[in-house]
């Protein structure tokens, strides 16, 4: 079709538009901290801006008992900064890790503690999401690439009961993916896609012209109930059709975190700071405003609502 | 369309560009309401006190309901916050809000509440650019919101979402909110009436992801938004009537996409509207609004829509355009069968059931009918169709001066054989693609007109609460082309 041919000839100019778009998003995120003014003369009520958490027991008994569920909440988080720090693997020791790109909390580094995360800013659209998400930096022919942005998508795995979902414990740290992988990882947990295509592959595939590329990470959704972190990530596990294992009985949201990168030109070598593209992995440190997180879990996930 | 997915999606910029190609392409009170509350502080009228003038002040207890079968909860008299009143209320209750400014983001999860301001213009919910939604109804049926104003929210002024049956927005004002003014997503059986929205980068009014939607938008004004109206994958007894869409980037823009459920968009009926001057470069605007800029009514990738007896004038591109929607990197194809009953969310597919769909998916605008409209002063053409005869779009009895292709009503009449429409419209659109679109203006900073006091709900302080049910569908045959404002 001649019309399509004309279209494809124009794709080059569209790259800038993608970047501009994300710049707009990031700019919006960064400038949301507008001074609060408390309304007019008769200001009778400055309500709880988080809303009042709903009664978790007041849940519709007609809700589905197994997935797939529609329950979800989500937030876009802009790229924040990059450091050779890893607050989970190497806390207190800056500069010893491979290069990480950080999203969400803007002040995270190797020396950050949970309490000061709560009081710092975020690149996330939901301002109460002061959690941190980080992934290894991407290099094209050895040059680091600045990500376009990220999406944190919280949902409920098919095999667990909605009513059992609990918010992440405050301060939980966990990892998804194997930074030492030399073989393709399970595509149900780690992979790549062209844009938001559901086709997830072990390595970045051949994408349509000017398509962004996403690294997609699905985090564990079961917790052992006692440890906020562990050396080998063994404090968390994944649910299956039968729900969470007895060793990790606490059901949590299932987080899919995806990082979007600019289109990868043909012929360039793509690597991650951790090694080949097979080493895709990411980290999550729950420093959400815990009340806001709890409210979202109760309001959206436990009620099977899309928020 | 979901702003978020449009932005994060790899295809967004290309989608935009592609659109250009194609579109540029493209009572409270005591008596009547149950007498629950003494509302003197609010200035409520001393209405008819015949029945229960001695009622006790509502404490928010369950037994506050009187003979009427519902309770009235007054903010701030009974509850300091709207959220507090909402949380205490039972289905069918009335929440009355006294004049004042409320810095709240209210979530509603109880069916059949009626949440009413005592005065539309002085009951103000203010998000201070920090809070997300003024009032958000999540999965609760039958909730009506009436007679108030929401400003400065980072997302939406008023928002219904997640498998809702029954919603109503009456006498609402939404100004300067970061996504939409009034937003219904995955909701059906709705009425949006007597309302005003300005200053949102996406749409002033939006109904999406429902079939049949069973919804009516009537007597609203939408101005200085990215889009006056947008609705992705919605339709089926969806009426947009007797309203004013002006000074947006683009006016009325129903559309289709695979990134949300219930595709495609179809059966939206657009009758008796004033649609003018939707070429405004000085608004906040998302991608689609930038690229659909300059079109009054744009039927993009939808099916069986009807645009009838609207008055449309002063547009940089088209008064009424019918065009495909090219979606890049679609996450699903065009469905083989269209859903007959749908509020379903598009759950992001799991890797196991993934399908690879590289390239561009074209949602063809098909079997739409455009008739008896009065269209003037379009810089490219009053009527434009960027489809072929096989798509079955039809045009008749419009009062217009120019069209692409020329002789459109002869080539694609409402009755009779459809003839070859040629490629002229495509060529013109390709020329328009090089035009630079003025960038979005930050919604927090954009200059907006003062709409002045808006009509307030009659008898707000005495009217019985009526939970939202299926609206009465209009008899559109009785609607004539509205007169232009003086």
What would you say this structure looks like, in words?
The complex is a heterodimer of chains A (307) and B (486). Chain A has 307 residues and is an alpha+beta fold. Chain A has one domain. Helices cover 14% and strands 23% of the residues of chain A. In chain A, the strands form four sheets. Chain A has a five-stranded antiparallel β-sheet. Chain A has a five-stranded antiparallel β-sheet with strand order 2-3-4-16-8, with no helix packed on it. In chain A, strand 5 and strand 6 form a beta hairpin. Chain A is globular and about 55 Å long. The termini of chain A are far apart. In chain A, 49% of the residues are buried. The model of chain A is unreliable at 1-51 (pLDDT under 50). Chain B is mainly beta. Chain B has one domain (3-478): 3 Solenoid (Pectate Lyase C-like), CATH 2.160.20. Chain B has six helices and 29 strands. Chain B has helices at 3-8, 12-24, 82-88, 287-291, 408-411, 424-432; strands at residues 72-75, 94-97, 100-102, 106-108, 114-117, 123-126, 133-138, 143-151, 156-175, 180-198, 203-208, 215-223, 227-232, 235-241, 244-246, 250-255, 266-271, 274-276, 297-300, 306-308, 311-315, 318-323, 325-328, 360-363, 369-371, 374-378, 381-385, 394-396, 403-404. In chain B, helix 2 crosses helix 6. Chain B is globular and about 65 Å long. The interface between A and B is large, with 81 and 78 residues.
